[in-house]
Amino acid sequence: MAKIKFTLDTRKKSKSSTTGLYPIVLRVFHKKPRFIYLNYQTSPEGWDSSKMKLKKSILANKDLDIDTINNDIYDKIHLAQMVIRDIGDAIDQTNVDNLVQLIKVSWESKNSSSLKQRIVNGITLAEWGGELIRRKEMFNKPSSARWYKDSINAFLKFNNGDDLLLDDIDVTFLKNFQAYRESIGNSKNSISAYMRAVRAIYNGAI
Known about the structure:
Layout: E1 3-8, E2 22-29, E3 33-42, E4 47-48, E5 53-54, H1 66-87, H2 96-109, H3 115-121, H4 125-138, H5 142-158, H6 171-183, H7 188-205
Antiparallel strand pairs: 1-2, 2-3, 4-5
């Protein structure tokens, strides 16, 4: 099982020659270790290793926005954990470099705004669903990928072939979708499967 933890890279070669400080990194261990470097530095005294955050009232941190940085660190560890959870049992079929890449992608998706804000601003069912499908295919989970594809296609067909914002999928939309699928003869189990897939896609985006 993969393990992740934010830590201070206090190796001699990592010490900044100009500031004398060390970089904060996400240590990803999956059969072997890899580091993902953040753009933050501090001293050993300025880093709380047990809580994985910067300390206040430390000289090395006096010019930093501690609360903002700590919030960013918290968000990044949460996103990394979400990636590992999404991969599930397929984690044994990948390597640490692929895992690092997926974590970086999840961070980039959050760049300058929260994932929730991205939904409000325009992320769509096909866009985010396509990302999850690629992950499932990458980790050799074709049945899950097909489930997502079929469900997305069913919703797009109901929406006259057009993609739709995740934020537009509300209770009314789902009830109308259910009524439509029932009218064309779909079983309750089939409709439920479509609903579960779209709920998983939406929750994954959140």
